[in-house]
Design goal:
Length: about 290
């Protein structure tokens, strides 16, 4: 598979294999190829079981299942959580080191209440799910994984298929079937642009965190980007300090490109109004010409 151009592998149910034996298999794989393939492993570790995620760090990255639960509960406002608390999200919360963590808001198991269950947002919670993904893709922790789904009512149901069991394509003669037989979260106009945002901000530190102490937050990533997330039903109008250079910036999270333009002054100050249950994302990859 590596010879055919495969760059990496997800090891399903890695926790059900002896870590030492899995390590031996991967050592043999790496000895036979020129470039090490990217490896990440499914290890469900809520902190209460005999097998722990730490056993698998030497082999590659590991799914951090607790991340999606914590972020989802924060956006849901349950179990004493609020998004204003997320400023310090990371190892101090009991999560694994950021350079080992593959994070997500939901996955195929958590959508269905499988894999130990828990409180996880999904595409069925459209507005909250969008905001949680904006946060995940903006916040500097872990390696984010974006979900792409199909709708279901039966948790055991397979993907959209013909009567003979052949999976239906996302595209047909009339174009993409997103919103019909496929959900296509990765194409949503609040998620896809944030992938570009994150790639540009990669390696930059968190700065200029702001919150109202509850359900409205904002933060920057170095001088590359700035996000504002309003989980409240009411509009938020506020002046924020950023590290962005002077200029006019497009809000990446609009249905049509650059239909909302915001100005950062020469002191890095930004005044913005964010509608209820919405977010704004500014980046140096989307500067508006005067």
């Amino acid at each position: 598979l590596v010879a055919l151009g495969i760059d990496g592998f997800r090891i399903d149910a890695a926790k059900h294999m002896r870590a030492e034996e899995l390590g031996e298999i991967l050592t043999q794989l790496r000895s036979r190829v020129e470039e090490d393939p990217y490896i990440y492993q499914e290890v469900i570790d809520p902190g209460t079981e005999a097998i722990t995620k730490t056993e698998f760090y030497d082999m590659g990255d590991v799914h951090e299942f607790e991340y999606g639960r914590i972020v989802s509960e924060s956006f849901l406002g349950i179990n004493g959580r609020a998004i204003a608390q997320l400023e310090t999200l990371g190892e101090s919360w009991g999560l694994m080191p950021a350079d080992k963590a593959v994070v997500f808001i939901d996955n195929h198991d958590k959508q269905r209440g499988h894999g130990g269950g828990g409180n996880y947002l999904t595409h069925k919670d459209r507005e909250l799910y969008e905001l949680a993904n904006v946060f995940m893709l903006a916040y500097p922790y872990g390696y984010p994984q974006v979900m792409s789904s199909y709708p279901f009512t039966d948790t055991e149901a397979g993907p959209p298929a013909t009567e003979t069991g052949k999976t239906l394509p996302v595209f047909d003669d009339e174009g993409a079937t997103c919103g019909d037989r496929w959900v296509c979260e990765h194409r949503w106009d609040t998620i896809a642009p944030m992938v570009t945002w994150r790639n540009d901000a990669d390696g930059t530190p968190l700065n200029h965190w702001w919150s109202n102490g509850a359900d409205q937050i904002a933060f920057g990533r170095g001088d590359r980007g700035f996000v504002i997330i309003n989980r409240n039903d009411q509009p938020l109008t506020q002046t924020f300090q950023t590290a962005l250079p002077f200029g006019r910036y497009c809000n990446l999270l609009t249905e049509e490109p650059c239909t909302e333009v915001l100005t950062v002054d020469d002191a890095g100050s930004l005044t913005a109004t964010v509608e209820g249950m919405r977010a704004i994302a500014l980046s140096q990859v989307a500067i508006s010409n005067p």
